[in-house]
Amino acid sequence: MIGFDVLVTRIDGLEQDDLARWITNNWVRPDVEHGQYVFEDIDIARVHLIYELREDMDVNEAALPVVLSLLDQLYDLRRHLRTVDSAIGEIVSTDVKRALAERIASITRQPGGL
Amino acid sequence: MDDPYKILGVARDASQDAIRKAYRKLAKQHHPDLNPGSAKAEELFKKIAAANGLLSDPDKRAQYDRGEIDAAGQERAQRPSYREHADGASGHRYSQGAQGNWDTGDLGDIFGSMFGAGRRPGGTFRSDGNDERYVLTTEFLEAVNGATRRLTLPDGRILDVKIPAGANEGLVMRLRGQGGAGTNGGTPGDALIEIHVMPHPFFERSGHDIRLTLPISLSEAVLGGPVEVRTPRGPVKMQIPAGSDSGTELRLRGRGVPQSRGHASGDLYATLRVMIGKPDAALSDFVREWKQQDAVNPRGKMESVP
Question: Cα B66–B23–B36 angle (5° rounding)?
């Protein structure tokens, strides 16, 4: 957990205005404690990612919301699939799991499959 | 670590701008936070980032070029991985759903399609498979003489690709029915395979002809005689006329690209290059004493031009 100023100095080239704008745009959502922003690990990693998208991958700020929205949906989907996977894992037997895995593999292979 | 120039795919004398561009292109493709399902992307990106860390800094790059530092140990400080957090429970913070939870309808959709039970009526509509594109890199001589190459597709299928003799750079071959599968009885798409030809150390294509520079010794140039020449289909003997100058072009008829549908076979052009070699006392003495019978000024024609 770190504050606004520490985060800005930690990323070489990141300006205060950039981070402030990203928060205003709701691209980064730090907690607020005693009137100060507090960044969790995921917020810090996200700021790094946004910075790299802009600096290393040429994604300009006009396109960023589209990229972030798709990424958020991708990670939503991955978390949900993981939930589904662990729910199945808790309920069914090893045999059923194996049969399930084989069935999914064969559907994926056949024409018209996933 | 491997050669950082190779990892970024740039020449050793590439400009800083070219290095930056190459890195950007690779980062877009392999950034691990954008490829959360791929361990390969993560490994690759580590190498790409390390190579860029070394080459993007002109001082470090110069040190590396002089051999003062090696490529190892240039890994960037561990960047925080967004993917690690977003995949876990803390990822809910940036969830798109209002509460970070899906309603049961969403879950039903997932279960439905996962188990094949809840297919919607629209799911039975028939559609043809997509064409899939691949790039096949071939050796120069494979493209000239033709070859069969085995391609393993991402889905594990194996295709034997017949590269026709005389294939040109950029030739696209269509393999019918080898692309994406159709759904509900739709016909499968085609595999489109683009041929990329690697350059050869000494052969060059010029349409259906092939050119090469043929080094010959001074005695071969002066006295003439048979010389062995490499051609795309093996070595052949060629007669060099006595008194051949550097730059003389000799043609071997029919020894270029072999004939193919609609094309006669091309020729091979060998441009001679006389190699004098290191100073040789006997040769120097001989030339110094040598009285040329018909002394001709080799630059005579140049002098008549104003």
Answer: 130
* Residue contact B183–A111, C-beta within 8 A: yes
Global ipTM: 0.77
pLDDT digits (tens, 9 = 90+) for B12-57: 999 999 999 999 999 988 898 888 878 888 888 888 988 998 899 8
- pTM, entire model: 0.47
Type of residue numbered B296:
V
Of B92, B96, B184, the CB nearest to A73: B96
Whole-Å CA distances, A85 to A80, A89, B90, B96, B148:
8, 6, 18, 21, 44
Residue B16 token pair: 């800083």
Give A37 to chain B, closest Cα distance, Å: 15
Q: Which residue of A has its CA nearest to B29?
A: A57
| B16 to chain A, closest Cα gap in Å | 14
pLDDT in tens, A76-101: 888 888 888 888 888 888 888 888 88
Distance from CA of B217 to the nearest CA of A (A): 54
Are B110 and A72 within 8 A, CB to CB?
no
